[in-house]
Amino acid sequence: MRKPKIAVIGGGTGISVILDSLRKKDVDIAAIVTVADDGGSSGELRKSLQHITPPGDLRNVLVALSDMPRFYEQVFQYRFAKEDGPLAGHPLGNLIIAGISEMQGSTYNAMQLLTKFFHTTGKIYPSSDSPLTLHAVFTDGREVSGESQLAKHSGMIERVYVTNTYNQDKPVASRKVVQTILESDLVVLGPGSLFTSILPNLVIEEIGQALLETKAEIAYVCNIMTQRGETEHFSDSDHVGVLHRHLGQSFVDTVLVNIEPVPKEYMTSHQFDEYLVQVEHDFAGLQEQVPRVISSNFLKLEKGGAFHDGDAVVEELLSHIRVSS
Fold first, then answer.
1. What is the pLDDT of residue 267?
2. Of 310, 295, 283, 305, residue with least CA distance to 258
3. Residue 223: how many other CB atoms lie within 10 Å
4. Does the predicted TM-score (pTM) go above 0.85?
5. For residue 149, what is the DSSP state?
6. Running DSSP on this structure, what letter comes out for residue 53?
7. Which of 67-76, 116-125, 186-195, 204-213 shows the lowest per-residue confidence on average (mean pLDDT)?
8. Does 33 map to a domain?
9. Would 80 be classed as within a structural domain?
10. Is residue 29 in a domain?
């Protein structure tokens, strides 16, 4: 029997937890990574090197899927000190990805080269080969442009969409992204920020349509904590409702939700100030929207934050996968 084909869609920090556990399994992995980040190092590089997609999320995914020695990882992830002038705050890996993207003529080509160089388990595709700008329309009608700007505005987000940053062309998916989704046995969304890590991929029309057409099982790994400026007061059912509303119909088959309580005294707000409270569990609301709800202990308390236990999530995902012929 062939290896199960699994596509994981989202942003680098969130899905890296799942990818790190998946690469230890006998599966065929493809990571589809958002390119709408315009904050921090990625944002600065976007200003300096136009037409290069932001490298930060891709860097984290590359590390998660690589078998590089720990020292190499530390070198790749090294961030220049704040007193280092124009290099201040840039991880070395971001500069490498940006440089090779320029050399190879596209970020897609750069990632194919780097996956070989770092011996990754699986493929890595930017969701688009052009840098994208994320736009959010709030329920009161206001519109905000730029991923990094969303959390600065109060109110509820009604919907998001993306545009090409440097031209008026319609955003399109990178090569092999649509084919990967259509040929997968399992597509995993998240974990990660709903409006800024997951949806920027799904609202690229080709990707959204592929998710509606694929025969793959589509699983959503719901966030453990709500996020300031994005999902305040959200239940797990609310998260799924937003996904379905953006694609115009129900498409998620399975939802994984953590039901293990996060100790109130545990969260250190100075480290993770974007997190608010634990996402409320609405089992009845989920049952109305998806065929399968998996409620379990997926919690991992680490470094003052509440994260997903990647191994527990992957074991649950693989236990339900069906390999098509």
1. 67
2. 295
3. 27
4. yes
5. G
6. P
7. 67-76
8. yes
9. no
10. yes
Q: Which domain holds residue 273?
A: 5-37+122-319
In the beta sheet, which residues pair with residue 164? 132
The two structure tokens encoding residue 266: 């545990």
Question: In a 3-state reduction of DSSP, which class is residue 46?
Answer: helix
User: What's phi and psi for 253, nearest 5 deg?
Assistant: -95, -35
Residue 235 — left, alpha, or beta (φ > 0 → left; ψ -120 to 50 → alpha)? Answer: beta
Name which of 227, 164, 163, 165 is nearest 190 in CA terms.
227
pLDDT in tens, 48-61: 887 789 999 999 99
Interatomic CA distance for residues 215 and 236, integer angstroms: 24
CA distance 68 to 153: 40
Which range among 46-55, 189-198, 307-316 shows the weakest confidence by mean pLDDT?
Answer: 46-55
d(CA 145, CA 138): 11
**Residue 325 located in a structural domain:** no
* Tokens of residue 102, six digits: 């320029």
Number of domains in the chain: 1
Q: Which amino acid, one-letter code, is at 229?
A: G
The Cα–Cα gap between 68 and 168 comes to: 39
What's the pLDDT band for 270 if we cut at 50, 70, 90?
Answer: low
Please report, rounded to a whole number, the percentage of residues in the chain having pLDDT higher than 90: 75
Q: Looking at residues 191-213, what average pLDDT do you find? A: 97
> Phi/psi at 15 (nearest 5 deg)?
-75, -15
Lowest mean pLDDT among 9-13, 25-29, 173-177: 9-13
Give the CATH number for residue 133: 3.40.50.10680
Q: Which helix (H) or strand (E) holds 227?
A: strand 225-227
Q: Are 92 and 71 in contact (CB under 8 A)?
A: no
Lowest average pLDDT, out of 120-134, 149-163, 231-245, goes to 149-163
Residue 274 tokens, joined = 């974007």
